[in-house]
Amino acid sequence: SIIIPVYNKQNFILRILRSIQNQSLKDLEIIFTDDNSKDNSIDVIEKYQNEDPRIKLIKHNKNIGTLINRNEGARNSKGEYLLFIDSDDLLLKDILNKTYLIATENKLDILQFRAYWGPEKYLDDYYKYDDYGFRHKTSIITQPELSKLMYYEYEHENKTLQTEYNLWGKLIKKQVYMEVLKNISDYYLNQHMSLHEDGLIIFILFKVAKRYLFIEEFGMFYVRNDNSSLANLRKDENIDKTVWDSFLYLKFMFEYTGDNFYEKNMAVYQFKFILSQF
Question: How far apart are CA 197 and CA 193, in angstroms?
Answer without folding.
Answer: 6
